[in-house]
Every structure is written in C-alpha cells, then in structure tokens.
C-alpha cells in the first residue's frame, strides 16, 4: 500500500515563480506548464468515506471535478493510503511547495481547492486576488524553524547580523523571520536577506551558501537526518497555528461544487483524526514519500504541539490574520488599507458545521 501511495504522489516542478510579493497575473496556461505532474483519482472501493458520502446524498456529484492542491506527504498521499479516496466526484491532485503558489494557482483558475497559512492570505488580500477562504484548519507550528548549518557558531538570532539568511517570500518563514529579528532588536537591514523558493533554499543550505534558512515542513527533519543543519530557533510560539482552505470563487455559486468541496474537507479531517491516533502508521505512510527516515518522521509527529483539524472559520480567525497584516504593513510590504475580511466567504460554513 505504501509503495502505491508513493507512486501516486505528484512530481513537483523545480521552477520558482519570479514574483515580488504575490503575482495574480499568472495564467492558467502558465500554471499548466509549471505544475509538471497532474494525476486523477477516481471513485474507489466502498470505504468509510464512501459510506459517509452515500449517507450525505452525494452520489449526484459524479459530474464534478475538483482540482486540488496538496503539499508533498499531505492529503494527496494520506487520503489514498487510508482508503478515503473513494470520492463520489473526480479529484485531480497537483503538488506545490508553498502556500503562496497554491493561492496564485487558484487565482489563475488552475486549481479549485488548496491550503495555506495566514501569511499568503495577507498577500492575497493585498493583491485583491480571485480567491475565497472557505475554512480554517487548526494545526501544529512545530514544523517551522530558523535553521543554521550544523557547524555554525551562531547560538542566537543576534549572531546572524550581517549574515546571508534565506527565507521563502510571502509565507510563514517570511513572517516569523521578521518577528525573530524584531525580538532580537534587528530588522532585515541587519542581515543579507535571500528570498528563495523551497527547493532552491534546500539546495543552497546543503551547499553551504546560506548562513541560516527560515523554512518549514519535513525539510527540517530531512536536514537534521542528513546532519547538515540544526534548529537555531523554533517559530512554534510565534505562529498562531491557523491555516486556511481556499476555494475557487468562480465555482462557489455551484451547489454541487460547494458540496464536493465540503465533502473533501470532511475527508481530510477524518484522515487527520485517524492518523493523530496512530502516528506510527502516519510516519510509515509518508516516510518513503518525503525521503526522510521513518524514526525522524515519527519523532516530529510525536512532538507536534496540536493536531490538524479543519473547521468553519470564525471571526477570531480573521482577527488573527489582521494582526499578521499589521506586521507586513509596518514593513511596507503591503498597503495600509489592505482588507483581509473581503477574502473570507461563508459559502461552505453551513456544510462544515454539520
């Protein structure tokens, strides 16, 4: 089963988008050129989720196709591995390396559903992108950190003054690097900031071209497993742990589309409920996909500070995003009149509360 799971995970394009902050001009054709591996998952056998779908009267959704963005080792792998891919609609997964690229893909009408943190959401609002936030996912913040080479003499953020520090623009790493520098009485002007995509940052870190790298995800465990880098400072207490699920607003008027997206979100929630209770199984599923030894993956999962849980968004979620937005306004990265509330849609809220 795990080998099959590994085979269906989509290949990620190594190309990074040359955008200054958030580019809404990318066309659907452009995304079809960049996202290199697209695969469909049709209706499978009658598993638990299939019984849920029939009970919810979702058999009418066979005409719907959802183009879903996923991160490596996340939903595109987990749902099939757990038998939760017996969708009553067609799902086409594409794999991305950061949430800001997923948001751009939705705005370009290349993807229908995907997730990101508070930070891409702020830039979505600033760019007035064609994206609707339809749900919140509570999740861990223990997979976000500022890394330094294993042999680095740096023992605090203050030691990075004048050093080359990589980060991933318009993502959590961008935000928590600003916050870490602020806490150390520093700013971007005190370092040599290097904006890199995830794959470029990993390569630069492994090659010794960076003195530090603000990053996220399983790449942290990968670098630690290689012995090439260590955590200088964790962002666990800086980030809120609120992530968001966005949908393509071009289709939200369609009742069948809304029901399909709500069903998909319910399946994701069920997957994380199952795996949170069996983290050894979780590690076994994703380890071969992300090429990190199973013990390191298991250790990371066991140290998560909160589980993943998708839900309808609330007013407090918006307030959290507004707090993040104020940081980027202060840094003059977004306009002062950016209104994040306009991005939120309650189109799915009734379906997610049932």
TrEMBL record:
Domain SsuA/THI5-like, first and last residues per copy: 101-227
InterPro entries referenced in this protein's UniProt entry, alphabetically: SsuA/THI5
UniProt cross-references to PANTHER family, sorted A to Z: ABC TRANSPORTER SUBSTRATE-BINDING PROTEIN (PTHR30024:SF48), ALIPHATIC SULFONATES-BINDING PROTEIN-RELATED (PTHR30024)
Name of the protein in question: PhnD/SsuA/transferrin family substrate-binding protein
Species annotation: Acetobacter musti
